[in-house]
Each structure stands twice: as C-alpha cells, then as structure tokens.
Amino acid sequence: MSREHLVFIIVCLATLASAALDPPHKILEYVGQCSRKNNITMQKLMELAGKHIIPTEENAKCFVECFMERMKMIEDDKINPQRTQEILKKKMANKQKPEYIEKMLEITEICSNEVTKPEEKCELGVAMMACMMTHSEELGLAPMKLV
Predict the structure, then answer these.
(1) Which tens digits make up the pLDDT trace of 49-64?
(2) In this predicted structure, what is the pLDDT of residue 139?
C-alpha cells in the first residue's frame, strides 16, 4: 500500500465535507458531534490526518464511522453506495477526468458489496477506507487532486 494511496483515502474522507450535499454548517455540526461523542480533539484529528494513516485508536475509528453515518455514507450498519457516489461525483466533478470518476464510482460500488459490518466496534468506516485503497491501487489510480 503506497503512501500516496493512503493519503488519497484519508483526505477523501476528510474533505468530502466540502463536497457534501449537506450545508457547511451541518458538516461542522457533524464534526463537533462526532468529536465530542468519541472524546477526540480536533488537534488529534489533524495529527492523524497529518500522519496520513488509517486510524487504529478506537476513538478515532469511531469518529470516522460517526462522521460517515452523519453524512449518510453509512446507514443501517452498511455502506450506502449511492450517497457515497453522489458525494464523490460532486467533489470530483471539475477536478478529474470522467474515466477517473467512473473508476472511483466503480470502486465505491465494489467496496460497498465487499465490506460488511465487522464484529468489532467502529470498524466499518476504516474497512471501507482500506477497501477503497486496495482497489484503487489494483486499478492503478493515482491519488485524486482535491484542490
């Protein structure tokens, strides 16, 4: 797993908020709710993002899952591929070639079918991140440019 792909997946989740179908004030509300619920500071979240790693600490994994639930990317203990694809399409619309977008949408569909609710608490969000990373590497996708 390359560092670039890991950065890609983490930054995707962290920046989906800017492409979210929800208004910005709701996104901030979700971040606040999930950070308080999981006893994680914004400083710690920024530190994890800066290290470009998939969270391993329970409170960080639970933050990811909480945020994905609030964004409706996870519903009923399953990945919601339609919602995730809507957000990705909006985020990548003017930044990526159509072929890249199509592959990412395909990966989202594949992973939503492959990733099931793990037995462990707060593992669904990070399992989706890992799946997307694996399949993006297999398809030879470079990390998407977010700015």
Answers:
(1) 666 567 889 999 999 9
(2) 80
Can you tell me the distance from the alpha carbon of 14 to that of 29, in angstroms, rounded to the nearest whole number? 14
Which domains can be identified in the chain, with CATH numbers?
3-138 (1.10.238.20)
pTM of structure: 0.77
C-beta contacts of 15-18 below 8 A and 24+ residues apart: 15/91, 15/146, 16/71, 16/73, 16/87, 16/88, 16/91, 17/71, 18/91
Residue 20: what pLDDT? 53
Q: Determine which helix (DSSP H) or strand (DSSP E) holds 91, and give its type and residue range.
A: helix 81-92
The Cα-based distances of 111 to 14, 48, 91, 107, 132 in angstroms read: 18, 23, 19, 6, 6
Provide the token pair at 98: 């159509």
